[in-house]
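ugh ok fine here u go
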Amino acid sequence: MSASAPPVKTPSPDRGRPRKFDEEAVLTAAARVFWEKGYHAASIDDLCEATGVLRGSLYGAFGDKLGILLAALARYGEGRIARLAESLQSPNPSRETIRQALLYYTRTVSDLNGPRACFITNTALELLPQEREVGALIQGIFRRMEGLLSAAVTRAQADGVFARGLDEETVGSYLLCSIQGLRILGKVFGEAELTRVVDLVLRALE
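structure:
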């Protein structure tokens, strides 16, 4: 997808209620619950216990359990986007810049501690295609990641690093698919094996 994809929209809380908790800390704790248990198995009591926030305050801020998930997922997605953008921030990315951005996913298979796969992937497998709002949020996250990847490759093409005839949107989707695969296979295979996969992925762009 193009780099001009719309930003991920974080679900808006009820502005009529004053906040009496640290939203960032609450959403981090909620993400852990959903990540470990899954959406359906996670109860409001689980979320209250993990966040230290009473049920009424959680509902007042986020609406319902789905609203809490959407807010936690949006925050997590923004973190992933920011990390990828930082790794590709060179104005003239070389092959090695993009390679290192991909290798990150062979070294770190989750952004929260513990034996979990990708929070976004887990949520997509559990709730899609039934929950359209979740699907729209995840699509927005992925489109922005694709845009960052395709823009980096486009800049590298201008410097003669990769083949000039590559389609911008296809390249972004290809590299995002590779990243998602690395995040899952990283739970099973070693870093050396996945490094060889990354090198093969990049050779296809030359």
